[in-house]
Amino acid sequence: MIRKRLAAVVAAASVAALVLSGCSGGGGDVNAQAKQFTKNTKAEISFAWWGNNDRADKFKEAISLFNKKYPNIKVTRSFASFGDYWTARNTEAAGRTLPDLMMMDANNLSEYSRKHLLQDLSPLRKNVMPLDGLSDSALSVGKANGELDSIPLGTNAWSMMYNKDLLDKLKIAYPTDHMTWSELKSYVRKVDQAGASAKPSEYGSSDFTGSLPGFIYWRMQQGKGVFTKDGKPAFTQQDVVDYVDSVKDLRADGKFFPIKRNAALSPKDGFLAGQYALWFNFSTTLLQAMTDSGTNRIGIVPAPGPDGVDQHVLATHPSLLLSVSANSQQKAAAAALLNFLVTSPGVAKIFGTSLGVPETRQARAAAAKVNATPADAPILQYARYTQSQQTPAYPSLPAGYGTIETKWGDLHQQLSYGKIDSRQFAQQLFDEMSVSLGN
C-alpha cells in the first residue's frame, strides 16, 4: 500500500507540474491514415509501458505475434517502474514527444485527455481498430472529456479477499458471497476473539474505510454519485464523516489490525504477512496476495453490501489501459497494435490475467486454458460472477484524482493514530480537493 501511495504521489505531482497548452496535439492526419491503412502498411512506432522484466518478456512475445499479421510495422519497446514511467511520460508530454502507443491508468486519463495529449480513437474504429467483442461498458471506461481516448487491456472489480489458512487455523467459516456491512462487523469481532491468544495476536481486518475506492463503491451501493461530469465531488463532508464513522465502534474498541504493526511490516501489510484475515482490493491483485503471503489459499468474494439489499455493486474497473498519443505520426499503426493487444486470444494466452481480465469472450477463453498462475482461475471465475450481476459503470475519475486518493490514505493514517477525528478528516480532504480539482 505504501509503495502504491508513493507511486501515486510521484505520478500526480508530475502531472500537476506540467505546463501544457490547450491546443490540439498535432501529429499525423488520423482520418487519412485510417483510410489508407492495410496489413502491408509500413511504419515504425514506439510502445511504452510500466512493469517488470517478466511483463517485458511477455510483450516481446506478443509483438512477435503482431508482426506475423503486420510484418511491416516495426515496434520499438520501452518500460520502467510505475513511478519512473510517469516521470518520463510527463517530461515527454511537455515537449509533445510521447510514445506512439502508451500504457495509461485511470488516475491519469482525465488529465492527459484534458490537455489534448491523447488521440480520440473513434475515427480509427471502422478500418483499423474494430475492437471486436468489446462491450459498450468496457469502452465507456476509456472515455474522457467526450472522447474515446483509451481502451482497457483488461478489467477488474472491487473485492474482499480472505486467507483460508488463517481462518482454518482459527476454525472460522469463510465469508459468504452475500455478506452485509453489519454482518462483516460481527465477523471481524468473531475473528478477533478467536485470534486474541495467538502470538502475535491475529485479527479479522485492517480498517477498511482507509481507501478512496472503498468509499466510491460505498456511494455506488447507495445509488449516489461520486464525481460530477465537470470533475467536482458529488458528495459532502458529512458523507465522508458518515463513511469513516461507520466503523468507529470497531476502531474505538481496538478491533482493527493495529496501524503501528502495519507500518512495521512495510512494504507488506498485515494481510500479506498472514496476520489478519480480510483484504479489500481490486480482484487482479489476487496474484500479489498469493505471492506475497506465501499461500495460494486466498479466497475472493464481493465486498459486503447494505443491509436489506440483496445486490452487490460489481462495476468493472480498468486494470490497465492503452492510449495513442496525439503527437504520433503513425496513429493508425499504433491503433492496430492496440487492437491486437486487446482482442487477440494469442496475447491472452501469453499474459493470462496479469494485465486484468481480458474483455472479449475469445480472449477470456484463451486465458482460461493457460492458467499461467494459480490466481488465473479464481480471477476469471470472479469475473464471470461480476458479469452476471453487472451494475452501473465505475465512475469516470477527474483530473487530479490521484492526488485525492493519496490524500485520503494519508489522512486515514492520521485518523488511525488518533491525530485527527472524522470531521477534520473530511475538512482537510475537501481543502485538498479545492486545490486539486479546482473546486
State which percent range the strand residues make up.
Answer: 5-15%
Low-confidence stretches: 1-25
Could you state the order of secondary-structure elements as H and E?
A: HHEHEHEHHEEEEHHEHHHHEHEEHHHHHH
Query: What is the name of the CATH architecture of the largest domain?
Result: 3-Layer(aba) Sandwich
Number of E-type strands:
11
Sheet bearing the most strands, described? 5 strands, mixed
Task: Give the number of domains.
Answer: 2
CATH superfamily of the largest domain: Periplasmic binding protein-like II
The overall average pLDDT, rounded, is: 89
Helix proportion of residues, in percent? 40-55%
How are strands sequenced across the largest beta sheet? 2-1-3-11-6
Q: Supply the number of helical segments.
A: 19
Radius of gyration over all CA atoms, rounded: 22 Å
What is the class of the largest domain in the CATH system?
Answer: Alpha Beta
Q: What is the general shape?
A: globular
Return the structural class: alpha/beta
User: What distance separates the N and C termini?
Assistant: 28 Å
Q: From the 3D structure, determine the CATH topology of the largest domain.
A: D-Maltodextrin-Binding Protein, domain 2
Keywords: Signal
Organism: Actinocatenispora thailandica
Pfam families: SBP_bac_8
Protein name: ABC transporter substrate-binding protein
Structure description:
This is ABC transporter substrate-binding protein. InterPro entries: Bact_solute-bd_prot1, SBP. With 439 residues, the protein is an alpha/beta fold. It has 2 domains: 43-153 and 320-386, 3-Layer(aba) Sandwich (D-Maltodextrin-Binding Protein, domain 2); 157-316 and 393-437, D-Maltodextrin-Binding Protein, domain 2, CATH 3.40.190. The protein is built from 19 helices and 11 strands. The strands form 3 sheets. A 5-stranded mixed beta sheet has the order 2-1-3-11-6. Residues 1-25 have low confidence and may be disordered.
